[in-house]
Amino acid sequence: MAAIAAAVTAPAVFGLISLYYEANALQVRALSDSASVSKYIFRHGKMWRFHRVRLAELVEHPELDNDAGQVRIFDQTDTLVLEQGPTLVIPTLIRTAPIIVDGTIVGRVEIERSVEALLNKTLMIGIVSTLLAFFILFAFRKLPLSLLDRTLATLVQREEELETQNFRFEAALANMPQGLCMFDSEKRLLVSNARYAEIYGLDPKQLNVGTPLRSILDWRVASGNCPNDGQQYINQCLAGIARSAAYVAVNELQNGKFIEVLHQPMAGGGWVGIHNDVTQQKHSEEKISHMAHHDALTDLPNRVLLRERLDHHLSSVQRGASLAVLCLDLDHFKQVNDTLGHPVGDALLRVVGERLLDCVRDTDVVARLGGDEFAIIQTGVEQPTSASVLAQRLVEALARPFDADGHEVVIGTSVGISVAPIDSMDADILLRNADMALYRAKEAGRNGYSFFEVGMDAKMHQRRALELDLRKAIEVGGFELFYQPLVNLERNEISGFEALLRWNHPTLGMVLPATFIQLAEETGLIVPLGEWVMRQACAEAAKWPDHIKVAVNLSPVQFRNKSLVSMATSAIANAGIAANRLELEITETTMLQNSEQTLAILHMLRDMGIRISMDDFGTGYSSLSYIRSFPFDKIKIDQSFVRDLDKSVEAIAIVQAVSGLARRLGMTTTAEGVETNDQLEQIRAQGCTEVQGYLFSKPQPASEVPRLLSSLWKKCPAAA
Ligand code: C2E
Ligand code: CA
Ligand code: CA
């Protein structure tokens, strides 16, 4: 409309106004011309019609130049009197004015002028105004419209994008494993997903947009989908929201579910809540934590938890109480494990755990430290008296037979005790002290208990120092082998030598095996040491006459590893001696441990031609059963029997029985520790085939062997 108005109005107004002015100007001219002509007629009378030249002068307007148009004068009869001016281009505008003389119209003046220029101008203006109108049209309509179109397109695109986005959000919301809810500042629900409803057992219909939080909480409390104290929970929720700070909380619901809530306030009020069902995770965390703190076999607390509990209890000791730490170690557990198998051993440990729990009060802690070691923290009673009562009860309880997986098993226990605050207030030191006391209890004979004493510390230090010395000695070769002859009673000659280890200690001098073999076994150092003994003994024997054997003692620890066989093979090969010149002496303890592997190794050794002797026979529990389990080449009757020959009939009977059995099985019998001629005679009378003892020779350095070989038989009374 504005454009049309602009296009039409401007030229129309211009045209009309110009026309109006033009018409007026013409009219004025017509009037003035008619007035001039009137005046002229008045003066010149009726013949004016013929005064054309004068008339022409009257109506001539030189100031108007060539735009004066045409002037016509008519008389009363409308006859043209004068016509002056150029021919006009139409259209034209005509104005007339009457010629009045003395009140009478005597003619008229007619002025005609072309309005072509005016029309042209109007046209020009029309063109300009049309252009203007187009511009206006474009500016007011086209431009905004296209802008509008563009905006609209953008909006449509936005909407589509939003829809896609919405669709994605909804899919994400519906599929996310967490429950999500969003509330506004008035605590009214804005958004929630299906999982949120599911977690809290809500009907999705209850979760319409605008639902107040309070209603949701009330429904949850009513249906039990909240922690135990519903009201308190609601208060907590409201308080959390009021703080308008982010928080994470884990709630345990009445149905056992654990829900982790992540509360995140939003700018401008309201908040987003993410609710995650972490029940599974919680359970596995608890399981892992339980596993980390408990022994899998007995489900008793492990060392870690024991240590924690001990720390905890020690804090109350600081307030005047006392407590005791009891360390237990089962006697003969290894035998049970080795002879009856691990499943029985495991079952035994479980029943031991149960029995220990029966012995203590609920407030005490029973833990399994590993293997057959247990520990107890006794609290809340007078110490050290209560600890000794408990220790005695434990010793008695564990001495009673057990039913382990259908097997009746008899074990026992030794107990070491340390007391806080007397011995220490430090958990580690208390445990270590109890352990030292346990060591003492075991040394003092099993099935007993022992309290920690200050001197034990020093003893342990001594032991550690000895261990260090031992390691160094193995490195630098601080050992030597002594050799003690074995005398054959039938031929009255030396049949071989037993290699016996000696330690040339830098300060202690010559140290006997009793001082260090056990330590070497406990520290595993016996393995390299035993290898050195075997290689050294074989190498030494290579220097002796071919019929002289060499006996080497083996520790049970060396049997834990099959490399013993290859080691023996290489020792023989390196020395270049016949395998049957090497005798390996093993004890009952070796037979006790992992008997299958031990027997396999023994068979491999024997198959190579190496001879196997049973050492210290009679000192163990079931020596005879071991004799039957492996074809030993020799039985060495323990010194204790030889020592008792003169005072114990039983000893004589045993020596006799063993000699008889051995003879029937084709084995040699050696009596150890023969010191007197009487003993020798009795031994000979009981049918032993071989003797060894101070009567013939104490163990001697290797350099003495040649002398012994050439002189010893003379000492043998029978040879005399
Ligand atoms: P064992 O195998 O029973 O060795 C015999 C022990 O009795 C030796 O003590 C020997 O000196 C001692 N003995 C021999 N005749 C008599 C006697 O008439 N009267 C008395 N009272 N004692 C006698 P030793 O050399 O002190 O060795 C003690 C134990 O140390 C050995 O007992 C053996 O079990 C162990 N042993 C020695 N050398 C080695 C070794 O190289 N390896 C291993 N694993 N153990 C060894
Ligand atoms: Ca021996
Ligand atoms: Ca022996």
How would you describe what is shown here?
The protein is of the alpha+beta class and 720 residues long. The protein has 4 domains: 2-95 and 111-174, no CATH class; 179-277, Beta-Lactamase (2-Layer Sandwich), CATH 3.30.450; 294-452, Alpha-Beta Plaits (2-Layer Sandwich); 463-715, EAL domain (TIM Barrel). Helix content is 49%, strand content 22%. Helix 1 runs antiparallel to helix 3, helix 10 packs antiparallel against helix 11 and helix 15 packs parallel to helix 16 (563-575). It binds ligand C2E and calcium ion (2 copies). Residues 484, 500-501, 512-514, 517, 530, 533, 553-555, 585, 615-616, 639, 672-675, 692-694, 699 line the site of ligand C2E.
Quick description:
With 720 residues, this protein is α+β, with helices and mostly antiparallel strands.
Topology at a glance:
Elements: H1 2-44, H2 52-58, E1 70-75, E2 80-84, E3 92-101, E4 104-114, H3 116-175, E5 179-183, E6 189-192, H4 194-199, H5 213-223, H6 230-243, E7 247-252, E8 258-265, E9 271-277, H7 279-293, H8 303-317, E10 323-331, H9 333-340, H10 342-359, E11 365-370, E12 373-379, H11 385-399, E13 402-404, E14 407-409, E15 412-420, H12 427-443, E16 449-451, H13 454-476, E17 479-488, E18 493-505, E19 509-511, H14 513-523, H15 526-541, E20 549-553, H16 563-575, E21 582-586, H17 588-592, H18 595-607, E22 611-617, H19 623-629, E23 634-637, H20 639-644, H21 649-664, E24 668-671, H22 677-685, E25 690-691, E26 700-701, H23 705-711
Parallel strand pairs: 15-16, 18-20, 20-21, 21-22, 22-23, 23-24, 24-25
Antiparallel strand pairs: 1-2, 1-4, 3-4, 5-6, 5-9, 7-8, 8-9, 10-12, 10-15, 11-12, 13-14, 17-18, 17-25, 17-26, 18-19
Bound molecules: ligand C2E and calcium ion (2 copies).
The site of ligand C2E has 24 residues, from strand 18, helix 14, helix 15 and strand 22.
